Amino acid sequence: MNSHEIEYKIYGDDMQFVEVELDPQETVVAEAGSLMMMEDGIGMETIFGDGSGGNGGFMGKLFSAGKRVLTGESLFMTTFTNQGYGKKHVSFASPYPGKIIPMDLSQLGGKIICQKDAFLAAAKGVTVGIEFQRKLGAGFFGGEGFIMQKLEGDGMAFVHAGGTIHKKELLPGEVLRVDTGCLVAMTSGVDYNIEMVKGVKTALFGGEGLFFATLRGPGTVWVQSLPFSRLASRVFAAMPSRGGSVDEGSIARGIFNLLDGD
């Protein structure tokens, strides 16, 4: 295997965290800010790129970090290496209510395509990149599904999503239509496109978006019941305004009120 072999255990139900067990000199790579706790003897290092070793020097690492910016992620990633002699543990937490999905890339064809904010952590050697949708329609109208992350390698990777997670196996030629925000991940063999909702009345009054993702098998698809964008919009909509004016009831003012403790 090119990736480090790591053991793990997932704790919790709706607010989960994953505990990774590292042998001496084993390393796990995670998104900046995802650390929950770690034992003594684990060294941290902030890096450009994903630490997979295939970035071709400084310029390659800089290019890799720049691609991550396109997905809305941090410019940096953090590595956690066991620098001691015995087994050590480091834990990473989900940023919002939902589930953590462990994915053994060696059992999934060596590649997973996921939503741009779904990646949590992975064994060193897993490449974290971006996946552009080939079709023009998806590029203009895909929204959350346009620029997606791709995880490549033969190690363990951990993806997080909101609400309940449903894993569905698609047969060859089988089609599944999913709200673009509810799509979490899929294997590389799944054909992915964006289609407009048919019928003007449905688009305007149905309460759904104008576009949905069309997935065609064969392959595996993971779907979430509560995208973070949907959760955030409901929270902001329910925020009470201060004084009753239109300006004070805006989303921006609601954020400031929340941070101020009101």
Notes on the structure:
This protein has 262 residues and is α+β, with helices and mostly antiparallel strands. The chain has a single domain, classed as 4-Layer Sandwich (Double-stranded beta-helix). It is built from 5 helices and 19 strands. The strands form 4 sheets. The chain has a 6-stranded antiparallel β-sheet, with no helix packed on it. Strands 11-12-9-16-19-14 form a 6-stranded antiparallel β-sheet, with helices on one face. Strands 1-2-7-4 form a 4-stranded antiparallel β-sheet, with no helix packed on it. The longest helix has 14 residues. The relative contact order is 0.15. About 6% of the residues have low confidence.
> What is the CATH class name?
Alpha Beta
CATH superfamily: Mitochondrial biogenesis AIM24
Q: What would you report as the Rg, rounded to the nearest angstrom? A: 20 Å
Tertiary shape: globular
Strand content: 35-45%
Proportion in helices: 10-25%
The main sheet comes to: 6 strands, antiparallel
Count of beta strands: 19
What structural keywords apply?
Double-stranded beta-helix; alpha+beta; six-stranded antiparallel β-sheet; single chain; 262 residues; 17% helix
